[in-house]
Amino acid sequence: MPLGLIILFALAALILFGAAHRALDRMHLTDTQALAVLGLIFVGSFVDVPLTRGRTEISINVGGALIPALLAFYVLARAGTSAERLRAGVASLLTVGVIWGVARLTDFGPHGGAPMVLDPLWLFALVGGAVAYLLGRSRRAAFVAGVLGVILFQLADVIMHSGAGRAASLALGGGGFFDAVVLSGVVSVGLAEVVGETRERLQGGPDPGRPQPLKQALSNEAWDPPRADGPPGGGRSQDGGGEHE
Prior knowledge:
By secondary structure, the protein is mainly α. The protein is built from nine helices and three strands, in the order αααββααααβαα. A three-stranded mixed β-sheet has the order 1-2-3. It is globular. 40% of the residues are buried.
């Protein structure tokens, strides 16, 4: 079974057991919505929509590119501030650049001499996810940069191949790139979640530099009303905003 599908099933289990509601709240998703998106990605991973015909045939995989991109734009639109949206956009482009550099500097081909310790696309996903977190900082911006970074990288690669006029069949978000998109999004949000929560616990609360309404919302998390579709105990506030949000 592809890694991407394994991750989807693992995420679904985490959501069902209530272990992901904090991150989902930050991304303005309910448990039901998140499970629906995972289901659409799973079903869509088997569907390729043709975009161009001819010597170079280009298609887009619904589950590996279309739905993740739409989800990323939804999360971007729900970002707390214009500064966070700008940071997510810039982080996405810089993530593309870093992945592109790794792809050019690392040769995994038969004559490249590089040991196949890790699938190249997994490497791109891990690098993309880490860079997305470092540049995006918040959960939302990191997710957007991680997902769009990998998709835009493949889009640029597809454009280059189609421009060369070579006979090829290219699926945006298909094949190993499905795994890369899913893994990059999970890594970026996972880093933001772990590092962000650890930092706040060590400093005894939200960053003092955050806006006062946001700090107040984050400080009043001792008890939240239960989520309509979540586990008892409630979720975190959905206020927009600052670092590690």
